[in-house]
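In this section we walk through a basic example: taking a raw amino acid sequence and producing a predicted 3D structure, encoded as discrete structure tokens. The instruction is simple. Fold the sequence below.
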Amino acid sequence: MATKSVALITMSTRGTRVGPSVAEFVKAIIEQPLASDGITISSVDVAKFNLPVYNEHVAPAMVPEKASFQHEHSRAWSAEIARHDGYVLVVPEYNYGVAGGAKNAIDYLLNEWKGKPAGVVSYGVKGGATASEQVKGTLSGMGLRVAETRPNLPFAGQPDVFAAIGGGRLGDGTRKAWDAEHVGSVRQLADDLKALLLQPNIEANAANP
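The resulting token sequence is shown next.
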């Protein structure tokens, strides 16, 4: 396989957030299995792009063939997503659904995403299964090819919930539980993503949401 680039995207945009630590947990597991097949991981943080609620005058579907983005934040986000061959989205669940900032970042673009493979890792009080399912439906409908394995990472008990939400920290109990119970599913996600990267990037390969 020729060298491929996968963006590991921290989708949380809150000021206090545990998302970067969750992304590092995922990266430590998937980096070596992907590297063995010439696939590199690039860490991407949505918060650093300072994306407001979508404020362009053109629809994302028109870019780049029929229109261009006006704002620098849109152009920077577009260029970042366009340069990668695949993605792993690390998605928080807030109030039993996908975070607004995460959905906004996805919706900013279309053609930069379309046809490419994507993995989804969710986290939250109960692991974020609802947010994961919502993101899968959105990405699949947009023409991405979503990996079948979608790890859900729950926080271990109320003290760790407050550490994550209030302090942006992964508690020791959560780290131990994830190491014991979830490493296998994250590794399987890496295998799923490798298989998808071998396929051509065509929208016809997209799964139904």
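Looking at the output, two observations stand out. The beta strands are 4-10, 39-45, 86-94, 97-98, 117-124, 145-146, 152-154. The first helix runs from residue 19 to 35. In the next section we compare this with other chains.
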